[in-house]
Specification:
Keywords: Cell membrane, Membrane, Transmembrane, Transmembrane helix. Helices cover about 70% and strands about 0% of the residues. It is mainly alpha-helical. The N and C termini lie far apart (about 65 Å). The protein has a single domain, classed as Orthogonal Bundle (ABC transporter involved in vitamin B12 uptake, BtuC).
């Protein structure tokens, strides 16, 4: 039972982890991208469509990454070249992605999906409990952890990471030192879009191998919250992603559990208590648990001013226009 729950948590957390680690890199460069949801849903529909037409899950994943990068390139052009408002542009991109994905995916509603195969490691996959959990996942799960390790090492152990963080903290000084702020930020945006597209591919090719309109279901917004939750530190993103994944799984299991309000124990409780239990066990309320948890976490983090500012890129959301 515990093994099945843990496997479900992993599948629920993986798209959040991948999308959040990409957004972390974008924000470390000083750009706030609220279009993650739109990039993710475009990756999901394009990945599903290509996999369905070609019969290849690998091509579907590549196409999803390309779709995410195409959306992010549009975002990058608007906010970096045309210096549009980052918040408004990101929101517009999300609306565009949701609407355009519905148009593309209309022909694929109800079509059987192609599920990515699980990797089987002889010997290790047969270990009780640990085998299926650690050594029998699909490639995207392992790729998600590899991305976290790569980003953590790259940001804090390489010159490129130092330059990226410098651009996010003080783009004026970085420009004065001869670094191309626009190019560095555009590369970071493309990386974030690729991660969002990959997260979308996981949704439609592994998590639920089918296409359903708006199947990202707000995961892009949760990924944005995860970056703040993690204080812009890659390893904390893993903790946050699995925490929110566990909340999502709790929601699914709670919906399957029914309270009998007519039982002698519950019938003896005050009316307002049984009423609260009845509301709390409705499917609508339980479905909102991941988003309520997101709001609660953001409120708690915002209350701690020092924690909020310790790793926040100083130039986050601020446009850059080179003076020479």
């Amino acid at each position: 039972m515990f093994e099945a729950v843990l496997l479900t948590v992993i599948t629920a957390a993986t798209p959040l982890l991948i999308a959040a680690i990409g957004e972390l890199v974008v924000e470390r460069s000083g750009v706030l991208n609220l279009g993650v949801e739109g990039m993710m849903i475009m990756g999901a529909v394009v990945g599903f469509a290509v996999a369905n037409q070609t019969g290849s899950g690998a091509l579907g994943v590549v196409a999803a990454i390309a779709a995410g990068m195409a959306m992010s390139a549009l975002f990058g052009f608007l906010v970096l070249a045309l210096v549009t408002n980052q918040v408004a542009t990101g929101l517009a991109l999300t609306i565009l992605g949701i609407g355009f994905s519905g148009l593309i995916g209309e022909a694929f509603i109800g079509v059987p999906g192609l599920k990515l195969p699980e990797l089987y490691i002889p010997g290790l996959s047969e270990i009780p409990f640990f085998g299926p959990v650690l050594f029998q996942q699909d490639a995207i799960v392992y790729l998600g952890f590899a991305l976290v390790a790569l980003v953590a090492y790259g940001l804090f152990r390489t010159r490129l990471g130092l330059v990226l963080r410098a651009v996010g903290d003080n783009h004026g000084s970085a420009h004065a030192l001869g670094y191309s702020v626009i190019r560095i930020r555009f590369a970071a945006i493309l990386f974030g879009g690729a991660c969002a597209g990959l997260a979308g591919a996981y949704l439609s090719l592994a998590y639920t191998p089918q296409w359903v309109e708006n199947m990202s279901a707000g995961r892009g917004w949760i990924a944005l919250a995860l970056v703040v939750f993690a204080s812009w530190l890659p390893l904390r993103v893993v903790i946050g992603a699995y925490l929110f994944g566990a909340v999502t799984v709790l929601n699914l299991h709670a919906q399957a559990f029914e309270f009998d309000l007519s039982s002698p124990f519950l019938s003896g409780l005050p009316g307002f208590v049984t009423g609260a239990i009845e509301i709390a066990t409705t499917s609508q309320f339980l479905s909102s648990l991941p988003y309520l948890a997101t709001i609660l976490v953001l409120v708690l983090i915002s209350a701690n001013r020092r924690l909020t500012l310790v790793n926040t890129p100083a130039c986050l959301g601020k446009p850059f226009v080179p003076d020479r």
